[in-house]
Write a structure and sequence with these properties.
This protein is α/β, with parallel strands linked by helices. It has 9 helices and 10 strands. The chain folds into 2 domains: about 80 residues, no CATH class; about 190 residues, Vaccinia Virus protein VP39 (Rossmann fold), CATH 3.40.50. The structure holds S-adenosylmethionine.
Amino acid sequence: MSLTGNKKSTEKESLDELEKVEIELLLEGIYRYYGFDFRNYVSASIRRRIWYRIQTERLKNVSSLQEKVLHDPCVMARLLSDFSIHVSEMFRDPYFFKSFRENVVPLLKELPFVRIWHAGCSTGEEVYSMAIILKEEGLYHKTKIYATDMNEDLLKKAKEGVYPLDKMQAYDDNYLKAGGMKELSEFFDICQDKAIFHPVLTRNVVFAQHNLATDHSFNEFHVIICRNVMIYFDRVLQNRVHRLFYESLSMSGILGLGNKEDISFNNYSHCYEAFNQEHKIYRKVK
Ligand SMILES: C[S@@+](CC[C@H](N)C(=O)[O-])C[C@H]1O[C@@H](n2cnc3c(N)ncnc32)[C@H](O)[C@@H]1O
């Protein structure tokens, strides 16, 4: 390689190193000032979102974003929203819900009461899906669902249970694949272009802010569902969250993960058996 080539690659390396330091300082500042801990999120995804915010705010670099974020809570709120990747859908991966209905529900029917935790519930589609299954299976009246997310704006939407009407056809298809017994439209009213889910579905739901990176266990559960959340965490944070779930699950309790997530490779994997490996449903056995 020529000398100029060497120089160029050294300059690039040093810029990359500088950006890495700036990102670490930004995340440290956010943690110390606002209490949100993104230090153990997958770095490529965090970096992409930081640059999206830099460009949208018409800034120059990570340090200028740090200055804005620390001095303007509105910029922090916008960055938090960038970091909370919140895509969700009802009966997402319908065969997960089908397996839950066919294999987990019979176990829950044996219990005098049931506590379920949806961690990282986003705008609530997953929670309404679960509530519908429990209603149809005659379990809802003895169930308490705790629906948590780190982002309060998302939780507000989850509580409202109002979704675009044009999504309902796809959700109805999912619902039927998940073993739905009626039509999804029996669970919502229509107002203009919105589907408003019946409040009875959230009668036994507690929506609360909870951060998996920093907060502790708050109850003991028979079921914990945490899907499509830990894919954004590095191994250190995944281990922390698995510890939290292990401590929060009752013996023989069920853990449901997303289809790109796995129980393997964390410090607690040996405490679970695969209840349905294909659909990432596990049972705590020790
Ligand atoms: C892609 S959504 C998943 C929603 C739903 N579980 C599903 O599978 O459709 C990821 C959610 O995790 C939440 N989240 C990310 N980091 C979190 C953390 N540290 N604590 C709690 N929630 C978190 C985000 O705010 C977002 O709502």
